[in-house]
Amino acid sequence: MRLHRAQGGGLLQDALSNGQDKVPLLGDVPVVGNLFRYESRKRTKTNLMIFLRPTVIRDAASARGLSTDRYDYVIGEQKKSTPAERLYWPDTSVPELPQPQSPAK
Following DSSP, what letter does each residue of 19-57 receive, concatenated? Predict the structure, then answer.
């Protein structure tokens, strides 16, 4: 079992947002308007953590192998997150209509 020690760092974000939904006109009435209005507050905290693990590369062949491995990994993850064709959108192609046949004489 190998243990790796990683250096870490990150970014923090704290966001507050206020929103209001109301029935048009009725939500604007001074006293009774509160019955037709909904106010919301939302707090979102995001913590982005980045971990680095140093790797010693001894020659150019090792560097190419490591670079290729990482590149293939990133491309594979991108392909996994790409939605399948026409998964969300309906097929909008129009089928060809049959040609009318001329009456037999």
Answer: EEEE-TTGGGSTTGGGGGEEEEEEEEEEEEEEEE-----
Q: How many residues does the chain have?
A: 105
Is the entire prediction scored with pTM above 0.85? no
Sign, CA torsion 20/24/25/26: negative
Q: H or E stretch including 61?
A: helix 60-81
DSSP, collapsed to helix, strand or coil, labels residue 22 as: strand
Q: Please indicate whether residue 3 or residue 53 has the higher confidence score (pLDDT).
A: 53
Contacts 24+ apart (CB under 8 A), 94-100: none
CB-based contacts of 50: which residues, under 8 Å, 6+ apart? 8, 9, 10
Of 32, 33, 34, 36, residue with least CA distance to 23: 36
Q: How far apart are CA 77 and CA 69, in angstroms?
A: 13
